[in-house]
Amino acid sequence: MSKPENDAATAHDSMNAETTSGVSRRALVAGFAAASVGVACLAMSRPARAQTKMSQADAKYQDSPKGSEKCAGCGLFAAPDACNAVDGKISPEGWCQLYSPKA
Ligand code: SF4
Fold first, then answer.
1. Does the keyword Transmembrane helix apply (predicted)?
2. How close is the Cα of 47 to the center of ligand 1, in Å?
3. Beta 82-83 vs 77-78: how paired, if at all?
């Protein structure tokens, strides 16, 4: 069994051959690459996603105050029961190691 001498030429020709829709494969590949670059640019132009909050465990959150310090007096507290830095439900009577008194 011998291979036809023009295998390479046949493969090359098929790369340039037009599909049944009249568009060459090379043009399709180039179009796909351009579209991919466009999608990547759109993704990069979006504003950065909001940072995720720290877990209560990592912040060493507790449901009770630490001395006179408590979430209600913290600048990061978001009434009625949230925090801008710590995830989950936060009690105004709670405390964590990120405590920062209101200015
Ligand atoms: S002490 Fe401040 S930072 Fe910590 S959980 Fe309470 S409100 Fe958030």
1. yes
2. 26
3. antiparallel
